[in-house]
Amino acid sequence: MNIKPYKQGSLDNFCSLYSLINAIRATGFEMNQEDSQFLLNDAIESLKPSDFVKVMLHGAGHKLLIKISKKLNESLDRIYDHRFTLTQPYKREEPELSAVLKRMTEARSKNTGIIVRVSSDTFDHYSVFECVENGKVRFIDSDHMPSLPVKELSTDGEKKYELHLKNVYFLQIRKS
After folding, report:
1. I need a labelling partner for 3 at 20 to 30 A (CA). Which of 21, 70, 104, 139 fits?
2. Are 11 and 146 in contact (CB under 8 A)?
3. Which of 145, 164, 167 is nearest to 153 (CA)?
4. Which H or E element spans position 49?
């Protein structure tokens, strides 16, 4: 499935918001741009001013991402009579990168939206995993990061890019 991601602005840190919207779309759930915009606006309006400032200036950590996802879920239920579950498969385990990529690939083949947090010395970013292809991890990304070389990715910070296992989220849609 080839999904054209919605893109965040050049000067904001809304990758968490966009990753949630893009992950919903990655499940194969069809939303038009107007409804996607409504979900995004509704989530932003639900934030306390201090949380909005945090997201705008520094991005969202785990707790804020979960808070935003709950609001998106309420809106998705209200508009489409569907809800999503958001799970953290690596909350308590730390498998090798190859096992993680295999599991994410299997989950994507079943239309699971997979939000990942990747960082380096120059960025810390939420994106949506698409696949592993030609030695690269491909993303449905809101900020011009289409792929990263697998050989430069680790789960322990030992390579150029780190995939943060505790910030990998599997998103699945179901009828309410």
Report:
1. 70
2. no
3. 164
4. helix 49-58
Model confidence at 145, pLDDT cuts 50, 70, 90, reads: confident
Q: What whole-number distance in Å separates Cα of residue 151 and Cα of residue 175?
A: 39
Spatial distance between the Cα atoms of 144 and 176, rounded to a whole number of angstroms: 34
Specify the higher pLDDT residue, 40 or 90: 90
User: Which of 48-57, 121-130, 148-157 is predicted least confidently?
Assistant: 48-57
- Domain extents in the chain: 15-175
Architecture of domain 15-175: Alpha-Beta Complex (3.90)
Compute CA distances 174 → 17, 24, 54, 124, 166, whole Å.
Answer: 20, 11, 31, 30, 24
d(CA 12, CA 17): 11
